[in-house]
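Re: 4'-deoxy-4'-aminopyridoxal-5'-phosphate structure - here you go.
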Amino acid sequence: MFDIARIRADFPILNIQQNGRPLIYLDNAATMQMPVPVQERILSHYQTENANVHRGVHTLSQASTAHMEKARHTVAQFIHADDDEIIFTSGTTDSLNQLSRMLESRVRPGQQILVSAMEHHSNLIPWQEMSRRVGAKLRIIPLDSRGDLDRDALRQLLRDSTTLVSVAWVSNVLGTVNPIREIAALAHDAGALLVVDAAQGMKLGPTDAVSLDCDFMAFSGHKLGALTGIGVLYGKKDILDMMSLVCFGGGMVGNVSYLSSTWGAVPQRFEAGTPNYVGAISLGAAIAYLSSLGIPEIARQERQLTELLQQELLSVPEVEILGSPQHRSGAVSFWVHGVHPFDLGVMLDALGIAVRTGHMCAQPLVEQYGVSSVVRISPAFYNTQEEIKACIAALKRVIPMLKG
Ligand code: PMP
């Protein structure tokens, strides 16, 4: 049984007052709050075990290294991968940017790269830039009228020589959950690699990179309750072994002379410079925390809250919800005729309710719906049904005020 009161006690920020009202934090797709056990883990690291990793013979440095490697193991287990398939980066954006550079030498002029129409800018612009550099063709997989990926269109697009498909697991705007296994099968049948932007997908259920069969997966620690500035790029070992290096410096080498160098093993050869080892340790602690609550329970809770949110929003006549995907999780975005989303956000904030407004770093997608910005409400497992209902009640109050 999910003891919500006990869980909320792990997130003191949920008890603060905002603008004189109890905070209702519904911007979890932007960042998840950090639970106390993760905060304590960071503190204890600095109080008892901090030293730079990989460098020193002294005990403290070795202990710090061991803690970072333990975190790598925790991440690997979490997605059912091997430790040497986990590259620490600074976040999803960094993972996807690095990956686009790492893959560049494999892409031939004229080949296709496919991304979906629902991508975050982080999973669009790196591929735009790489296609431009290489002379590859970036094509967009369209969505159907519900906001689901159009699988027939994907099949059609895959008929032309495609080297790579990169899609979000979960859309940060529509909440659409994409069928990754099916997309992986289609991509692989066509001889293409599959990259998954899992920034919004990691709390969906047990995340099994192997059975999802993606070749690469990117995600951010801060969306799981860890520090900002830590993220992961997962890659299948046999592919990583052949990838180009894009960042050079300390910690990633085998042997260095003035005129040339050799490289260390995977994954360290992809982690030049002092890694964000405290971030990695916080991510290990965050995953341990989420696992102690039970990922399937977290997923169930977030699905139920999203369903409730959607139902409640449907009861507000002025609200236009973006999309009605078959499987939605974590976020619902909408707009209201004649009201600027920014004004709605400000009015809700005055009532202590934190939601997101803007194009959500998915400008082409939002514009497909005929608007330039939206309001996004994104619950997490520590939110309550009462908070969702209070948010919708507030919305019903402020819309008439804004419509004048
Ligand atoms: N992809 C998706 C689907 C996202 O939701 C986000 C974060 N909003 C990102 C990529 C980028 O993540 P980060 O800013 O942590 O690099």
